[in-house]
Write a structure and sequence with these properties.
By secondary structure, the protein is mainly beta. It has strands at residues 3-6, 9-12, 17-23, 31-38, 45-50, 57-59, 67-72, 77-82, 91-99, 112-113, 117-122.
Length: 123
Amino acid sequence: VQLQASGGGLVQAGGSLRLSCAASGRTFSSYAMGWFRLAPGKERELVAAISWSGDGTYYADSVKGRFTISRDNAKNTVYLQMNSLKPEDTAVYYCAAVHTTGLITTPYEYDYWGQGTLVTVSS
């Protein structure tokens, strides 16, 4: 599966952005998806993950209550709605996929990665 992330940009603190990740292929619904971010000087962080059906979700403590992951299997797209953005959310955000029905929270299990989209939050 090929992944194309979009939706990044520059936003003021407190603002919102919605990231999208469009996937190619006809079996998108059989993939668990995740959003990761990488900030300068920091390790890659799993921000949110969602199971193939959308019934299971995971959020990093740093984004709980502010970010929402969702997916539309009919559109082969996963979303990350980011509200109440903070300067520390500034990073390149990546979407990733793994062929499984479960909820995957470990980066090394993801097989497919999209190109990143830059999110910059100004104070």
